[in-house]
Specification:
The chain is built from twelve helices and 35 strands. It has about 625 residues and is α+β, with helices and mostly antiparallel strands. The radius of gyration is 28 Å and the shape is elongated. The relative contact order is 0.08.
Length: about 625
């Protein structure tokens, strides 16, 4: 099914009220990534009635240029002038920018109390002044009043031969079908701006969507685009249902509400507008956060699923388990280590191992228990000696001591745990696996944690057996800096190496994932900076497969640890797209508590991705993708 998307892009502003072109570039890049055919720039969502002529032309030039770079079309309006001469003057300046279409606004053709005859007269005058090669469109703009696209206007557009685009806002499916009938046989495409009638209109021949909701929930539109492309009608219908429900946002304080949500995605810096409406109230902001949560849950519930199996049934081998580490081996065997016992922090908690082979899990078994204190966060990884396991033991994080043991027979037997030396007693990998560099040495993701402050760091080992302290990842504590990281800080780096260097994504207390990069093999790191990824202060993990980077995480900024999903990046981690959902339950009914699917460990073997994760703290899940 054909389904094109032309977002009516908002104009981001800085706190000084000036256009923020950096944020605008990020928005256009985002729309390119989700498969938009093009962008509708300098439109009502862009606040075209509140921009100067100079600003509109500069905004149009930037949008056309950025869209060209991203392989997208760009249709442009800004047709807000009252007098015909002023309209023609502006439109002729737009022609020089060569957009894919210049979009005329129907209510500029005549005053509200004037009829079709005047509108047609003005249209002819405008068209006569424009170049024969200029491509055009028409926008049934509802502000300051709506002038419907009558059959006479549509016939005039069709007869002219230069029109390619209609943005329809009538919100009536019978009217839309009549308009589609009128433009049959012409090069004109009709894009619907109304969610309630979108699916019916597309099935009737409309080209797609051009409206507000692409600024509100771009991820759901990506899912709709994918479903339409793959002929998944049931999925497409369900996505449209959710978007129709969410579209009530259009009647709130738009576009400030859309900018607020885009801020939370890291795409806009402010929610500043020029509409004259008051800023969003605290209550409105809370409503938007709740709406964002509903939108996200809908998205991941409808995203393709990665089937998974549990290492054991609930309450069969231990009361609770958590913090797994997955290691796929040759021949189809997979090892998963985790801590388990009565509950996290209890004295009986030890390190357990589950083995998956020939389509089944063996019974879990405890492989390490060095004392009567709680054990924590085991990490499995390969070395030249064999399979190495590192874990922590101690009553609290501040008392942790690292231990390591080795298996030379694929996890069947393990050496006695060896305590880390006093120089770095809690050293080595914390939660996430070490990174083996191209040089053969190892970098371990580590951190220093106190009750007041979290500091991420990197440890180093030549052979992967014992690690020494190596480098701190700088964290900004200055509230005036754009890299400011509020709260305790960051821990548990997730590491990868590519042609640009070594990189780390960080779990933080900032409701956002931060990142740091090293150009010298991990010796020094740049100051951690925020990404567009939301963060719920829970573990994340990455693995690189060919030129793609896979990230397992809870993609939420609330404290909940659901849903759990995998994202994929094809640009070295600069941006991520959804890939698969692992789990998205909300309530653990069996134990009458909030569901929790978290602490993923992700690894690769022979082009397949393996993810283990905590399953309501009652078992460990394994997905093989």
């Amino acid at each position: 099914m054909r389904f094109e998307m032309y977002p009516t892009i908002v104009t981001p502003y800085g706190e000084d009220g000036k256009i923020d072109y950096e944020s605008l570039g990020r928005l256009i890049d985002t729309f390119a990534r989700i498969g938009c055919e093009g962008v509708f720039a300098v439109c009502q969502s862009s606040e075209m009635f509140f921009l100067s002529e100079e600003e509109k032309l500069k905004l149009a030039a930037f949008s056309v240029s950025r869209c060209r770079e991203r392989g997208m079309k760009c249709v442009v309006s800004g047709h807000t002038q009252d007098g015909v001469e002023a309209q023609i003057s502006y439109l002729k300046q737009l022609e020089k920018l060569a957009p894919d279409a210049i979009i005329l606004v129907s209510n500029r053709l005549a005053k509200e109390d004037e009829g079709d005859e005047k509108a047609l007269e003005t249209l002819k005058t405008v068209l006569d002044a424009l170049l024969p090669e200029t491509r055009l469109g028409m926008y049934e703009c509802p502000y300051p009043y709506k002038r419907p696209l009558t059959p006479a206007l549509i016939e005039a557009m069709k007869k002219d031969g230069r029109f390619r685009f209609i943005k329809d806002t009538c919100c009536k499916i019978d009217e839309i079908r009549a308009r589609l009938k009128l433009i049959e046989g012409s090069p004109i495409s009709l894009c619907n701006a109304n969610m309630a009638t979108l699916r019916e209109s597309v099935l009737s021949g409309a080209a797609g969507y051009s409206g507000v909701m692409l600024n509100v929930s771009p991820e759901l539109f990506w899912l709709l685009h994918e479903a339409a492309k793959n002929g998944e009608d049931a999925r497409a219908e369900k996505v449209c249902t959710y978007l129709s429900m969410l579209s009530t946002i259009e009647y709130q304080n738009y576009p400030a509400n859309a900018k607020f949500l885009l801020m939370r995605k890291g795409l806009c810096k402010t929610a500043v507008t020029r509409t004259g409406k008051p800023p969003l109230t605290e209550s409105q902001q809370k409503e938007l956060v709740a709406l964002e949560d509903v939108s996200r849950r809908a998205f991941f519930a409808l995203l393709k699923r990665a089937p998974h199996k549990l290492v054991c049934g609930y309450d069969t081998c231990f009361n609770e388990c958590h913090a797994s580490s997955v290691l796929p081996l040759a021949g189809g065997k997979t090892l998963i280590s985790y801590f388990a016992g009565e509950c996290e922090g209890a004295g009986d908690v030890g390190i357990w191992l589950s083995v998956y082979e020939n389509g089944v899990f063996r019974a879990p078994r405890q492989i390490a228990k060095v004392n009567g204190e709680a054990h924590w966060n085991p990490v499995l990884y390969r070395t030249d000696e064999g399979i190495r396991l590192v874990f922590k033991a101690g009553r609290t994080i501040q008392n942790w001591v690292s231990h390591t043991c080795l298996s030379k027979d694929g996890g069947e037997s393990w050496s006695e745990p060896e305590r880390y030396p006093d120089g770095n007693p809690a050293g080595g990998p914390v939660r996430n696996k070490p990174l083996r560099l191209k040089s053969g040495a190892y970098l371990a993701p580590a951190s220093d944690e106190t009750l007041e402050r979290w500091q991420p760091r990197i440890d180093f080992s030549k052979d992967g057996r014992m690690f020494e302290k190596y480098a701190l990842i700088p964290v900004c504590r200055d509230p005036g800096s754009e890299n400011f990281l509020p709260g305790k800080g960051a821990i548990q780096p997730a590491l990868w190496e590519d042609e640009r260097g070594v990189h780390a994504l960080l779990r933080t207390t900032a409701d956002r994932i931060y990142r740091s990069d090293s150009a010298d093999g991990g010796r020094t790191w740049c100051e951690a900076y925020p990404t567009a990824l939301p963060g719920n202060n829970s573990a994340i993990d990455v693995c690189r497969v060919g030129g793609k980077l896979y990230l397992a995480m809870n993609p939420v900024s609330t404290r909940e640890r659901t849903p759990l999903c995998v994202l994929v990046s094809e640009d070295g981690g600069d941006s991520f797209m959804p890939f698969m959902t692992l789990e998205d339950g909300v309530i653990d009914d069996a134990h009458a508590r909030t569901a929790g699917f978290a602490y993923p460990s992700i690894s690769e073997r022979d082009g397949r991705v393996y993810v283990s994760f905590t399953h309501n703290r009652k078992s460990i899940g394994l997905a093989e993708i």
